[in-house]
Amino acid sequence: MTQFKFDEITAHLKQSGFIFQGSEIYGGLANTWDFGPLGINLKNNIKNLWWKEFIQKDPNNVGMQSAILMNPLVWKASGHLDTFSDPLMDCRNCKTRHRADKLIEEFDPSINAGAMDTKALQEYISEHKISCPNCGSHNFTDIRYFNLMFKTFQGVTEDSSNTIYLRPETAQGMFVNFKNIQRAYRKKIPFGIGQIGKAFRNEITPGNMIFRTREFEQMELQFFCKPGTDLEWYEIYKEKCMNFMLNLGIKQENLRFRDHDPDELSHYSVATVDIEYKFPWGWDEIWGIADRTDFDLTAHQTHSKVSMEILDPETNEKYIPYVIEPSVGVERLMLAVMCEAYDVEQLENDSRTVMHFKANVASTKATILPLSKKLGDQAFSIYTDLLEEFECDYDESGSIGKRYRRADAVGTPYCITVDFDTESDQSVTVRHRDTMQQERVKIEDIHSFIKSYL
Ligand code: GAP
Hints:
alpha+beta; BirA Bifunctional Protein, domain 2; 15 helices
């Protein structure tokens, strides 16, 4: 398989209208991205598939949407106020700011600097004379910790009593609603609550386009189970998440599980695994599956004084459920799907850029092409009819070959050509993106034809 450079892929994504620099006409705002029509379709398709698989089709699970702004006590209880921070150092020479752990990992990728304490980080950097990536000098300040939560103020007065935070994960919205949902929906353990929503982190080293940003969306499930059954559910969700990624068209050879070492685990977890994807810059995390134990519910019970206990109907014992959490960033997953799909193929006398999206995620399922503008009315009516059910496009400008190439470049699986025989035989020519083969299909069968591939 050809490995493409990440710059080449991002240039294509921008040029073809999947993703634009945020606030571009004002020179942009660093690390913000806007999704064009193709980008948002792809994103919505991924979110809808997740919702269907993890919520709608799963009899154990229900969905919800919690507020982005939450009572600050939530973040005290969850540990985010005290521990959700990065170790930062300033370069005294060029005044740039750096994450100490990242400097070490870039210097030696075999080191897990996330597990090092402040003293160890500082000693490693001075012993190995790690230099500033910006100016090359070795003149850093001491490490200070910087909380990643975005702060703002509720109401008109900007004083600390009005400080609130943009949520850094959607998870806490589900923990604080655990009892509401369990009671209102008469849910019995085991059951899960899932949501899709925005999260915000003031990342000091964002990068790789939409891979690490300060504003992103998460798809998270909190699966509540009886202590002692947690590792079984952990394995089930590991498998389910991996299968979900394969079903998006990502090849097995580009995916792997990476277990967290004991010293790398978050404060709340006894077991965590990442599903990593082989991005053009190397293996990197997409999806984390964690056994969060009863850490969060216990913490909220302690801080809110509201009981989070469940009564076991068989033993009559009360207990706080354990939680298995599969958590994935929508944009990260989307980026992996786009990197996987991108290809430049050499043809006999030509080459073509093609995105080999699986039909279930493709931004547009079909493009309708009238062979001549004279056939526009009939073609447009097929197009509007298909729009009832599928994301489609209509393209009448340029030669048919050019139009095929445009559709290939954005990953549209089917081109539907209306020609001069269409009226008499009530059929169209369907061209398949990957094989470039063509077949004649009756107009009345087009819906079911496309559906059969989704
Ligand atoms: N509730 C658990 C949690 O938030 P996490 O590992 O910090 O765990 C989960 O984040 C997922 O969210 C990551 O695996 C990644 O896909 C996504 N994610 C985290 N930070 C991100 C960022 N700055 N930009 C884009 N996606 C991010």
